[in-house]
């Protein structure tokens, strides 16, 4: 009996010592990876999303982030030690992006304020911090590359800035530390995500192989020949958890990329080879995926039915507009990771491996043939 009581007491103590994480946007590319990393590191993880899905080790919470009352009701008594913001909602204008996305952050922080449990808040934004919002993307006078996380904000409205301001303001009143994480284009799995280059290129390559279409780079000569970098979702997740537990990283904004650089004229051949394709010659002209794939829904549905794929809706597999925005940029985009390195983050992820791991996972999950 004494042994049983001792074991029960030990388990209770372990449970009391386990930290609780609230992942906001738990079904997205960044949120899914963050949740998995937190579970692997022994956290109790709550996954907040409008439509949660089953995820290993994550307790789902359903609520609309734009509904303050619904968020307050859903989060009552959850007592998270840390909050990880990994989502946003795209609106028609930047003014609406600012209003809606700032309110989403504010709604969550207001909802957990009463428990006084939050010790850290992490916010994922991105390189539009340096390149400008969609309405003014890559326009005007931009900072010199590589982009450094110490560079000042652009003199333009940007919902990333509004989100940061909400977090910093709440930290000053509530006493938690914060971190901001600025990835480049994220490679990861999330069906239905609005910004998903990895699955977009996987769907495009699968269709090219299916119908014998040339696997042609859709972007600009500057991207084809210039240096660039990317961020795997797992690398971003490790970075967020590292910042939460590293005192020196408190109240800092960081760039986060894989650590390698490449040129698309090399990477395009690597991706083509994985799918058993020959890359088409590139003549320097832009031919967006939005144009190349605009009539591909019937082709994808037929392919999905024949191969027994899990997602017959191409619009949930591919987001050509976002991939076109990245690959069509007229400037070289490279990101400096020096600040994270100086603070002690030394993780590294080869970008071609990140693509290949994603493609293999998608194939195993019957998302691509």
From TrEMBL:
One Pfam family it belongs to: PRISE
CDD domains named among the record's database cross-references: 5beta-POR_like_SDR_a
Highest taxon in the source lineage: Bacteria
UniProt cross-references to SUPFAM superfamilies, sorted A to Z: NAD(P)-binding Rossmann-fold domains
Domain PRISE-like Rossmann-fold: 83-369
Gene3D superfamilies: NAD(P)-binding Rossmann-like Domain
Protein name according to UniProt: Nucleoside-diphosphate-sugar epimerase
Native source organism of the sequence: Brevundimonas variabilis
């Amino acid at each position: 009996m004494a042994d049983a009581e001792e074991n029960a007491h030990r388990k209770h103590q372990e449970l009391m010592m386990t930290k609780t994480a609230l992942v906001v946007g738990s079904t997205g590319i960044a949120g899914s990876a963050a949740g998995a990393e937190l579970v692997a590191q022994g956290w109790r993880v709550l996954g907040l999303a409008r439509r949660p899905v089953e995820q290993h080790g994550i307790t789902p919470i359903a609520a609309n982030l734009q509904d303050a009352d619904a968020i307050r009701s859903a989060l009552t008594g959850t007592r998270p030690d840390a909050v990880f913001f990994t989502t946003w909602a795209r609106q028609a204008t930047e003014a609406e992006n600012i209003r809606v996305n700032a309110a989403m952050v504010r709604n969550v922080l207001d909802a957990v304020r009463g428990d006084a449990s939050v010790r850290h808040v992490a916010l994922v934004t991105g390189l539009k911090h340096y390149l400008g919002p969609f309405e003014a993307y890559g326009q005007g006078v931009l900072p010199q590359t590589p982009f450094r996380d110490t560079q000042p904000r652009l003199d333009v409205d940007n919902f990333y800035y509004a989100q940061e301001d909400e977090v910093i303001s709440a930290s000053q009143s509530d006493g938690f530390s914060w971190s901001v994480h600025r990835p480049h284009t994220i490679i990861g799995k999330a069906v239905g995500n609005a910004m998903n280059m990895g699955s977009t290129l996987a769907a495009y390559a699968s269709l090219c192989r299916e119908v014998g279409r040339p696997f042609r780079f859709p972007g600009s000569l500057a991207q084809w020949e210039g240096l660039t970098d990317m961020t795997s979702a797992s690398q971003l997740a490790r970075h967020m958890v590292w910042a939460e537990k590293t005192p020196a990283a408190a109240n800092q904004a960081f760039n986060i990329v894989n650590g390698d650089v490449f040129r698309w004229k090399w990477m395009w051949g690597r991706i083509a080879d994985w799918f058993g394709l020959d890359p088409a010659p590139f003549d320097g002209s832009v031919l967006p995926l939005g144009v190349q794939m605009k009539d591909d829904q019937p082709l994808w549905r037929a392919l999905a039915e024949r191969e027994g794929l899990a997602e017959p809706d191409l619009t949930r597999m591919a987001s050509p507009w976002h991939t076109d925005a990245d690959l069509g940029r007229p400037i070289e985009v490279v990101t400096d990771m020096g600040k994270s390195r100086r603070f002690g983050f030394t993780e590294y992820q080869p970008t071609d491996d990140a693509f290949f791991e994603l493609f293999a996972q998608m194939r195993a999950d019957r998302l691509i043939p």
